[in-house]
Task: inverse folding
């Protein structure tokens, strides 16, 4: 219950603010431009709808991760820098409850991004293959990735106690996670590329979207990658719990 | 003079024999020879590589090429978006054996194209190419761009309105 | 009320507290004095169960601070030295939020009377961002009173306030101590605060107690002078 009050405070502080809404308006404008280009520009509309749906899903996932990282970086370091964390620690609330409330708000943020993206997914994927199953996978894997990256950056923010530094490291991790996209198809087919893809939760998610939406493959093909993502989720929660319980002012 | 003619003849004969040897040793054909399809379709080309010699052919590389021959757009195409399997490495083809390679392809743009498969054998200086398969792709857009406009314009506006509503409600609570 | 025995805290080889021993009686306004960097804030953070000590014992109202931190937090509260505020909240929202964390939903009247007690009545609907430093300090005290603590820790509560602001805080603390019997642990380096408010003091430097005793009017400057002369401060 106390975690719910923290979550409510975080939502009011970070989501229901001009800055929070600016993020969401920007998200929807970018998605508007992307979908409009997909469906009207002849060069881009050469891709079939499955391909477009897959690309939009990747974009939404990346955006969810990115905003989750910003959210997480501010969680503890931001409060320390603003001098507000000590009053929270003085209240009879466990540090893990504070972390749970903050993580809850980060997940709420992802849910809003997902909700914003739904109309675009339907417009772009309408009449194409695997629309609903694709959206279901995005909902589940996107939530897990939001937890992984937000929890990781929250843990980092509790350890480093500097918002700027934890943000820089988080962005570096984000670029690292997104790096397979920059690798050529040939390099990704080598054993090194495959291992890199497998141990990277973001790559696991986009490869799963590819397999589900474009190749119409069933859950048995996805199980391994989904299991790795679940493993990362547990690992990130453990990291957050450990970092927060060690946090001292 | 006679000696010069003899020497030149020997050189020409040697080149011809070598070329004939290479051409005969490996042969490649492409199937289907003609394709008419729509944009967005997926088709597969099959390349049959035959080793005509008595020796095994080792470490052969076969790759597919696509050239746009539409009037005014003549150019070779980058196959990155069309097909990920550009090249196939074949470890060995036994004497008088054949190898069948598959090249799936997603048809990305409309126009007239030629497709051919080339085989490179490191024991030969001359690459061997198949005959050209003609590919005609019709332009077809199954998408309805009008669907996107209400969402593309409406959603950012809607979020803006929700924000204004929350801001006004909050403003009323704060003195 | 508070018993501190052999309290030691080290940071990366630096000893912030070096075997601190003292006790605070119920009903005291206990002055905790010392120059900057003496270890005052570290002591308060340990006593309020925010950080852990490397060794030693702290018992508050019969509860071991290290073993029962939540039980201690229920009966104490504090105003830290550099207390930040959720500036986007109104004073009422701020107090409501913290009262929820104590598991007690305060009524509108309760919040009003608390704000009235700290002199913020009529300002409860204003955003904290519009408050002056003195108003924020009063709000901080209101937050620290939200659970009706038996023991209140205040770390430099009058720092940066003008004479009137300081006098108001003094009156408020005297009232709390006399009318509600709240024990106050006051960390300060302002001799005026000590002389007006405290009945007992401890002076620390380099994490060690250099003087301890009762405060009699007009003696505090002598105590400090003596401590300085003896090379303790």
Result:
């Amino acid at each position: 219950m106390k975690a719910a009050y923290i979550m409510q405070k975080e939502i009011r502080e970070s989501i229901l603010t001009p800055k929070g809404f600016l993020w969401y308006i920007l998200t929807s404008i970018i998605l508007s431009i992307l979908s409009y280009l997909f469906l009207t520009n002849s060069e881009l509309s050469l891709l079939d709808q499955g391909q477009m749906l897959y690309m939009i899903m990747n974009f939404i996932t990346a955006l969810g991760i990115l905003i989750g990282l910003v959210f997480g970086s501010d969680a503890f370091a931001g409060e320390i820098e603003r001098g507000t964390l000590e009053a929270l620690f003085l209240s009879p609330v466990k540090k893990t409850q504070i972390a749970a409330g903050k993580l809850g708000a980060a997940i709420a943020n992802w849910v809003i991004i997902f909700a914003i993206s739904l109309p675009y997914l339907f417009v772009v994927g309408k009449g194409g293959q695997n629309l609903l199953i694709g959206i279901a996978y995005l909902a589940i894997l996107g939530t897990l990735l939001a937890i992984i990256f937000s929890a990781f950056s929250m843990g980092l923010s509790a350890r480093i106690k500097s918002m700027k530094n934890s943000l820089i490291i988080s962005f570096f991790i984000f670029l690292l996670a997104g790096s397979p996209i920059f690798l050529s198809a040939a390099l990704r087919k080598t054993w090194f590329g495959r291992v890199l893809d497998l141990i990277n939760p973001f790559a696991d998610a986009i490869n799963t979207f590819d397999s589900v939406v474009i190749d119409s493959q069933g859950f048995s093909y996805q199980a391994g990658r989904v299991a790795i993502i679940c493993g990362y989720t547990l690992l990130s929660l453990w990291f957050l719990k450990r970092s927060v319980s060690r946090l001292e002012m | 003079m006679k000696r010069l003619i003899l020497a030149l003849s020997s050189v020409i004969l040697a080149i011809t024999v070598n070329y004939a040897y290479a051409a005969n040793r490996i042969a490649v054909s492409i199937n289907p020879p003609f394709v008419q399809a729509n944009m967005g379709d997926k088709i597969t080309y099959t390349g049959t590589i035959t080793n005509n010699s008595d020796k095994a052919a080792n470490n052969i590389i076969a790759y597919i090429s696509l050239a746009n021959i539409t009037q005014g757009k003549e150019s070779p195409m980058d196959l990155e978006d069309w097909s990920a399997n550009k090249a196939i490495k074949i470890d060995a083809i036994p004497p008088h054996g054949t190898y069948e390679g598959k090249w799936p392809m997603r048809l990305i743009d409309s126009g007239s194209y030629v497709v051919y498969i080339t085989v490179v054998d490191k024991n030969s200086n001359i690459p061997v190419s198949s005959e050209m398969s003609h590919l005609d792709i019709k332009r077809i857009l199954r998408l309805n761009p009008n669907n996107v406009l209400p969402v593309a314009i409406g959603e950012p506006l809607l979020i803006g309105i929700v924000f204004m509503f929350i801001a006004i409600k909050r403003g009323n609570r704060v003195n | 009320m508070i018993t501190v025995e052999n309290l030691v805290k080290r940071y990366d080889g630096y000893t912030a507290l070096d075997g601190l021993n003292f006790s605070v009686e119920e009903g005291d306004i206990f002055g905790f004095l010392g120059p900057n960097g003496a270890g005052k804030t570290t002591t308060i953070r340990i006593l309020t169960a925010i950080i852990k000590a490397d060794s030693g014992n702290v018992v508050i109202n019969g509860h071991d601070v290290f073993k029962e931190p939540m039980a201690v937090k229920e009966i104490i509260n504090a105003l830290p030295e550099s207390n930040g505020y959720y500036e986007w909240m109104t004073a009422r929202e701020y107090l409501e939020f913290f009262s929820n964390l104590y598991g007690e939903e305060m009524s509108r009247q309760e919040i009003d009377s608390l704000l009235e007690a700290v002199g913020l009545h009529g300002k409860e609907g204003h955003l904290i961002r519009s408050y002056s430093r003195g108003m924020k300090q009063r709000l901080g005290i209101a937050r620290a009173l939200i659970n009706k603590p038996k023991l209140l820790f205040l770390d430099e509560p009058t720092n940066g306030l003008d004479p009137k602001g300081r006098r108001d805080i003094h009156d408020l603390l005297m009232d709390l101590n006399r009318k509600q019997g709240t024990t106050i642990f006051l960390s300060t380096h302002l001799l005026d605060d000590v002389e007006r408010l405290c009945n007992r003091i401890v002076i620390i430097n380099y994490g060690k107690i250099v003087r301890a005793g009762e405060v009699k009017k007009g003696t505090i400057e002598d105590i400090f002078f003596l401590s300085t002369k003896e090379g303790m401060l």
The longest strand of chain C covers residues 14-24.
